[in-house]
């Protein structure tokens, strides 16, 4: 059976996130670091002190001790003790890391300590999440969820400061737990985000989304989904499109095709098996829907994906990744390309 009743788990399963834990930043005095745009997700915490986060095109945000931040496909940005300091580029600073840390200013005067990392996703499916994430999700230490994140932060800091056996695996799982909590925090925000992520907290639309994800093989009708949401068909259709951005059955087709693309790339099911697993009564009906969404037949897509994998295409590395239940262990980076 494809999918689960948890859309966030489903999405992360398709993303196959690779975690990189970056050098810890210790800073004192006036300082500023400039980072390049990043196509996927950054995650960080202010362990001690405070700093400014200035995303290009946005007002600066003050990050205080205990605050967490998540950056979704961020533009160029600056982290700074003071925005009047001349920013230095992140890459050479990160390249100079020793023992997993970089330092700006005198150790005796240190007043800021940051930990962070980044996630890279399967490019084919990255838009599933990136399209519904803002450039910045900021969780304050005083927020209800911030208290839970603080406990995870303590574990994270302990792991990055040691080289214990199994540390990379622990870091990977901690980072992904933090990632999920940040997504939940974003979905919980009062100014509810648009897209499927924000809609999950709506009692009606969220229930329909979970039902579709739990059983993609079922031949869902608008009437059934409206009933699950306890709404009339017209009210459900209008509310779903307003919150998620697409019609309910169109969303279902797109999600089925995302699952199908992933299965075809990994070769886990035959085309006929995949047709029935995604709710189609025949292979031909599935192929027609697949071609309409993807632009090629399932066989053409599968063959092209396998050729790319066999040729060692860098962007196709996820074809040989572990399953979503066994994520790739986190790496400690000492040479990140402008990452925080």
Automatic annotation (TrEMBL):
UniProt xrefs under Gene3D superfamilies: Homeodomain-like
Listed InterPro entries: AraC_lig, AraC_XylS_family_regulators, Homeodomain-like_sf, HTH_AraC, HTH_AraC-typ_CS, Tscrpt_reg_AraC-type_HTH
Region (Disordered): 308-340
Record-annotated HTH araC/xylS-type domain positions: 206-304
Biased composition (Low complexity): 322-340
Pfam families: Cupin_6, HTH_18
SMART domains associated with the record: HTH_ARAC (SM00342)
Keyword DNA-binding recorded: yes
Example GO molecular function: DNA-binding transcription factor activity
Keyword set, alphabetical order: DNA-binding, Transcription, Transcription regulation
Protein name: AraC-like DNA-binding protein
The organism of origin for this protein: Streptomyces iranensis
């Amino acid at each position: 059976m494809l999918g689960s009743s948890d859309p966030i788990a489903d999405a992360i399963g398709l993303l196959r996130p690779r975690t990189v834990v970056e050098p810890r930043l210790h800073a004192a005095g006036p300082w500023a670091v400039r980072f390049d745009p990043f196509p996927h997700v950054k995650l960080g915490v202010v362990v001690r002190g405070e700093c400014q986060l200035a995303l290009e095109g946005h007002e600066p945000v003050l990050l205080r001790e205990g605050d967490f931040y998540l950056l979704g496909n961020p533009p160029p940005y600056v982290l700074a003790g003071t925005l009047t300091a001349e920013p230095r580029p992140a890459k050479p600073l990160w390249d100079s890391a020793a023992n997993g840390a970089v330092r700006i200013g005198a150790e005796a005067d240190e007043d800021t300590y940051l930990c962070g990392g980044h996630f890279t996703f399967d490019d084919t499916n990255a838009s599933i999440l990136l399209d519904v994430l803002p450039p910045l999700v900021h969780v304050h230490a005083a927020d209800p969820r911030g208290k839970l994140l603080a406990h995870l932060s303590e574990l994270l800091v302990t792991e990055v400061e040691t080289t214990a056996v199994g540390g990379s695996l622990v870091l990977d799982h901690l980072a992904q737990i933090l990632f999920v909590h940040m997504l939940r925090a974003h979905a919980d925000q009062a100014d509810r985000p648009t897209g499927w992520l924000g809609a999950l907290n709506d009692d009606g639309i969220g229930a329909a989304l979970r039902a579709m994800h739990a059983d993609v093989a079922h031949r869902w009708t608008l009437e059934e989904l409206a009933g699950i949401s306890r709404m009339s068909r017209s009210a459900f259709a209008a509310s779903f499109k307003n919150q998620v951005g697409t019609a309910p059955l169109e969303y279902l087709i797109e999600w089925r095709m995302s699952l199908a693309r992933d299965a075809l790339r990994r070769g886990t099911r035959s085309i006929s098996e995949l047709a029935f697993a995604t709710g189609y009564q025949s292979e031909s009906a599935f192929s027609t829907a697949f071609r309409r969404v993807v632009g090629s037949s399932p066989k053409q897509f599968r063959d092209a994906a396998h050729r790319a994998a066999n040729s060692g295409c860098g962007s196709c590395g996820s074809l040989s990744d572990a399953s979503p239940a066994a994520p790739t262990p986190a790496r400690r980076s000492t040479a990140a390309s402008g990452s925080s």
